[in-house]
Amino acid sequence: MHTGKRYTPFEFAKWTITDTIWLTLIATVPTVLYVIGWKFVGLPWQPIAIMGTAVAFIVGFKNNASYNRIWEARQIYGAIINDSRSFAYTLRDALGGKDSETVKRIFYRHFAWLTALRFQLREPRTWENMGRERNADFKKNRYEIPELNSRIENELQTYLSDTELQYILSKKNKATQLTALQSEELNQLKRSGDLNDFQWSLLQQSIIKFTDDQGKAERIKNFPYPRNFASIATYLLFIFVILAPFGLVREMDKLGEGTFLQGYTVWFNIPFSAIIAWAFHTLDTVGESAVNPFEGGANDIPITQISRTIEIDMRDMLDETNLPEPIAPKNNIVL
Predict the structure, then answer these.
(1) Sequence-distant (≥ 6) Cβ neighbours of residue 114 within 8 angstroms
(2) Distance (Å, rounded) from C-alpha 82 to C-alpha 78?
(3) Which of 27, 37, 137, 326 has its CA at 20 to 30 Å from residue 19's CA atom?
(4) pTM of this prediction?
């Protein structure tokens, strides 16, 4: 997540430099051909303008869908924050307070669940974009993805006993199995009389909410923006970017008629066509870069920071003094 007021022009320029060069070269070709006498390359601008309108609609639709996905992801983690806090104080007060070893064990197992979930959500998918050159270059020396710089077993070791750690590491969906362990222990506490039926019901409802939150996050993670919409947007945008300079070259040449710039304004076709194509292409790229909110991009949901915040809040409920430090942004980006 970007925490600054805005991206700087330099950051945007660096992020799109390769595309900008290509768009300028594409605009140069029809301009040069027109100048050397190939006047027939000047196409009517009206049908190209109609295509531009269609491209604007489909790019806008894609960006709106991308925003909806990232906003839903943020709502999911907002729910995890609230559910974790209510689960924590309900559990603490039901089981005898902050000095209970059982409370601490369940709290720490919840931290392990948060850890396992964020590691699972950071696993790459074939349709995600962090492997693309522009995103990899932008990430370099700006920020790091914590889950790629550590091992899940090392982090889980902080929260789990050796027996539970080995059990969880043997499972495919570690987050789900940690939730199952929580439910199993709550059931044992109910049978032993440490929890009454009402307390058990409240805590079990929290477990169900965590399962629901995890499922919603996994749905976004494992279901990409539909490839049919993504593909048609890419193809139409490509056609428009190619045709735009052919449709503008004649109009730019007409700008200088009857003035001292006659014969020279045709060269305006290069910057104006490149700027128009850059605007459409960059809007599409922005939407594509935000469509997978858990992959580790600069605009993604800061699930590592949120997980750390929950851990600090819950450990503070136990009056622990050696609290972990909040995760601070690096170059205005926090994950």
Answers:
(1) 80, 84, 307, 310, 311
(2) 7
(3) 37
(4) 0.88
